[in-house]
């Protein structure tokens, strides 16, 4: 057994504390992101259909069995179906309604033959909304019936005749060529039958078919030309369906606190006929009332512009008033805000004297104020110089002058320039906030858009290293690393100016429900390869090895061509070439953090390899790195993934969006690589260069299904076996930084030779 000394215990305790802090930070960041629609970890979209909780695709994702949505991935885009039925869902809203497709019944004739089909629809829990839907029949020799059970039998229908199709007028459904009737309340099932009086003989060939269907009111507008063809046989009509939770009223449901569906900031509403209830966010709140924290306060000050005064957002409401010195009610539709308009016509001389002297006094005051202002300006300018010194401005200037001609776009910005560019660091300019600082969007005087990072490194002892870091980042000129354009040292905390990347983070594309499309596997693999190349470059090709320390999806940006750009070097550390590893305070993001580094605080480039392995897993599975929906032992993606791989159950966890018949082998290879990257012992992990190499090779792998032959396994082993020895004896860190250039090493595997 291990015998832990006091110091070791202390170390472990502090590591745990650190982990807790990082974790809290993680939770806070998550909370600030866009409101969720589905339960955490649940599929929130199927094709074009957003699936809000209480609906879900199985397991705990749906509140009860009735709220199951089946996503059939054989269609492109995928189609959502209600439960296990063939009823296709078009749209689900959290306010108690959803829309499905229904079909029409038809009854078609030629002189000798009748071809008919009666449509039948069956819902199990929900009912058809009788206000929003209507029953319609069209035909010139038609009587159509809609019937079913609703406690007792019900039936209704209508009749439509016409002598000559030219009598029919468009848009009118009143019995000539078309008829309509409403359906009863609470209908859960119906079937539609159509019959004719004379087998259409009098109206052939003008009107061969009768059709009848239930559809949303404004979704079908009758046109005389509909009588001519048989084109409604395959047409589908949207129907609005009401849904409720359970079968009890709010009052009864509330007693069962454990299963009560309405969460905070929401009201419970009884359904009309007392069967079940639904939930609604309080006034002034919006979101999904069925999710914890789902109903979020609406920021009326941002969404409404009817306030012309000072708008203050309050929980559930807001306050509009005029700033001090103004009068009026503050509303644009009201009196707005204006300066008090004193009556000047009847002014006594006394008032004039008072006015005169107060103007004189004001002048004096102004003088004093401007004097103070000037003094303050001088103070500020002194302060700026001090900051410039403190932040190593002189050092940087020297460094820059030494290296003149290295990169011409090197620039030291002034504080004013950046203040102007960010509209004085206005909230609306914030692009993101992280552990290392805040990033603002800035527009420079020459209209260039840049990202400005206000870092929180303000420790004088770190100045030299900070300058060093800026210098190194200046030198980095890699197409997959966000380019540093300049910096500003005149402020208390140094500011960094980067190129602006337009297309958001990979995290956003992979995990955001609103992301317009799913990243296909080819793109994911390319992004992974590019990221690996960038890291390999940082580790080995740059003149001093750089460890990024915070590799995660949120730090990989995408430009307009979806090219990956590694960003956020706030935590990065330089490793002087005479040291293989350095001791640092453990820093990083929970879930991506190298456990070995966490325990030893010894930083090597293998920590980045670990984080990158987790990134690969995230790309493969589309799952978040930490997820409370998963059971305890599988909460952390890296552990979960490795354990599934051990049991040979990779397919269980793969993102259905990436898997197809042709890329199974490729996915397996990437998964194996990811597992190697997250090995507990750093020295057993491959180097970033090897990872980049392998990924580039896999990318070049031809896409044919070679899954069936056993040969495939040997083949890929051969391919992967190019550097077998290096894995085992551990790449010694001393070899780092020498002779590697991942960029010039674009690998093209000799596949012909391998086969
Ligand atoms: C969700 O639906 C599935 C399939 O009907 C069912 O097995 C599961 O129990 C449902 N979930 C809940 C929480 O009832
Ligand atoms: C998906 O749709 C296809 C084609 O209609 C069907 O063959 C298949 O059984 C469906 N899959 C599921 C899971 O319902
Ligand atoms: C679904 O309904 C919501 C709200 O009713 C609407 O904003 C959205 O456009 C609809 N989506 C589709 C695909 O009909
Ligand atoms: C009527 O329809 C049937 C079946 O489609 C076809 O076999 C027959 O030839 C048609 N008769 C005429 C007169 O068009
Ligand atoms: C009846 O109509 C359906 C749908 O158009 C068609 O598939 C079927 O062949 C028709 N039957 C006959 C006997 O023509
Ligand atoms: C339609 O519904 C009625 C009443 O439920 C039933 O008698 C009839 O058999 C049904 N017809 C079809 C074709 O399902
Ligand atoms: C329908 O009316 C048009 C014009 O009113 C006429 O030319 C045509 O013969 C009529 N068709 C029948 C079948 O009566
Ligand atoms: C009815 O609408 C159709 C197209 O929807 C058009 O071709 C036809 O001319 C219209 N008829 C009348 C009488 O307006
Ligand atoms: C409606 O018709 C389409 C084809 O016309 C068919 O694929 C679908 O299954 C039908 N839907 C129902 C609910 O019968
Ligand atoms: C209420 O609706 C349910 C189906 O949602 C139905 O079974 C029940 O008979 C209805 N009750 C009344 C009083 O209409
Ligand atoms: C102006 O509009 C706001 C909200 O739309 C309303 O609360 C207020 O009463 C209106 N004021 C007047 C004077 O109509
Ligand atoms: C809104 O405010 C602006 C200045 O803040 C003022 O010029 C304008 O007259 C105000 N509008 C109304 C309707 O009060």
Automatic annotation (TrEMBL):
Tell where it localizes: Membrane
Cross-referenced CDD domains, in alphabetical order? EGF_CA (cd00054), STKc_IRAK (cd14066)
* Sequence ranges assigned to domain EGF-like in this UniProt record: 297-329
InterPro entries recorded:
EGF, EGF-like_Ca-bd_dom, EGF-type_Asp/Asn_hydroxyl_site, EGF_Ca-bd_CS, Kinase-like_dom_sf, NOTCH1_EGF-like, Prot_kinase_dom, Ser/Thr_kinase_AS
Q: Which residues form the Protein kinase domain?
A: 425-707
Query: Which chain regions cross the lipid bilayer?
Result: 353-375
Q: Which domain of life is it from?
A: Eukaryota
**Primary location group:** membrane
Q: Which GO terms describe its cellular component?
A: plasma membrane
Function field: Serine/threonine-protein kinase that may function as a signaling receptor of extracellular matrix component. Binding to pectin may have significance in the control of cell expansion, morphogenesis and development.
Name of the protein in question = Protein kinase domain-containing protein
Q: Name the source organism.
A: Gossypium raimondii (Peruvian cotton)
